[in-house]
Amino acid sequence: MALFRFSSALDPMRDLIALQQELDRFFENPRGLDLGVSGRGVFPPVNIFSDKDGYVIRVEIPGVAPDQLRIDAEGRTLTISGKREDGKSGDASFHRRERDMGEFSRSLQLPDNLALDRAEAAYQHGILTVRVPKTEEAKPRQITVKAA
Amino acid sequence: MAKQEDAAPKKQEVAGEEQTRAGRTFVPQVDICETPEGLWLWADMPGVDDKSVEVRLDEGVLTIQGQVSLEDYENLAPVYTEYNVGNYFRRFSLSQDVDTDHIKGRMNNGVLQLELPKSARAKPRRIEVTVS
Fold this sequence. Notes:
Strand content of chain A: 35-45%
Largest interface: A-B, 69 and 51 residues
Number of strands of chain B: 10
Number of strands of chain A: 8
CATH architecture of the domain at 35-86 and 101-138 in chain A: Sandwich
Helix content of chain A: under 10%
Oligomer: heterodimer
Largest sheet of chain A: 4 strands, antiparallel
Order of helices and strands of chain B: EEEEEEEEEE
Number of helices of chain B: 0
Radius of gyration of chain B: 19 Å
CATH class of the domain at 23-72 and 80-120 in chain B: Mainly Beta
């Protein structure tokens, strides 16, 4: 008896708790996929999602100008790097200094059914979102059944 | 600046405060610095825009809150996660020397920037000593 495993996209998540529990379940667990995420635990943190069109990579990196972000694609590897600088200097004394600053670089090795050359990136509200679509061959096709 | 090699702390959950909204709430990381003119505060709240941020000052207590939108996560299935997503909340007790009428706030690229000028009497003053 064959056992079919369907990987379905998550239902639209309206509940914040449901989203948080789902993110928890995948915490640092690549689910068997060899994503080769480098520098885990170093800022900025990275989340990787999939939808029906491909992969969606999110990076929380508030307070940078888009031209300070650099995204390189080579082979299957996506590298996100840049530099975050803070604003004040001079005759200021810091009461607290908690925010991560400085140069950063994160590398991800993506599955080979993705077209890295067609990746698109957008930066909004301090979150960088990179969408990497599936290759044409990887897109689901429906196979028509001909009457023989 | 040297490249960041040490681990970034995971988001800390707010302890000891119950929010009316369900779900985990996180403490935004802040930088606070003081100049002769006043205090500056920057809070990292990625995912929050100027419409979903709230700053209040009551009786010397500064409260900053930010809401994130869940719409960005619809139809996405997690594959690998390092950070969780949630609203932000943090509270500070300020000394009474803030000129509350002239506090300025800006929300840009997920960073809340507050300028809290010192009230006139709190600014360091030089007292002229004249020879009589």
